[in-house]
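Reopening: Macrodomain Ori protein still failing for me.
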Amino acid sequence: MSFESDKRFNDFKHFPRGLRRSGEFTVAEADSLEKYGTVMLALYQGNLAPRDDVESAFIEQVKSGAAGNNPHAKVWFKYLKVIGPKRVHRLCTVAGGANEDAGGSFEGGGGGSDESLD
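Support: Ran it again with your exact input. Result attached.
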């Protein structure tokens, strides 16, 4: 049987409350990771040689970056994406530079003086 291991997979560094309670994975995905994750990690790191064609296909798909129809590769890619570095998108500009005064001056504009009222 493929991905068989006696040890359950847990990543308390990234998921201190466990994979199931993280909210990142479905119940089926968390079950798959807990059941097969130890072997998936060993195959991914190169510490274990593939024992059958399913594990060989998993390694090829992980190396190529395409999961295809392999459920093991899909859940492993999702795990790697979740534990990977987070992207930060900022919607602000950095102050300074040549156009520092552009658009921020209200001096010399009309509408604020009492002289135009008769």
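The chain has a mean pLDDT of 82. If you still see a failure, please send the error message rather than a screenshot.
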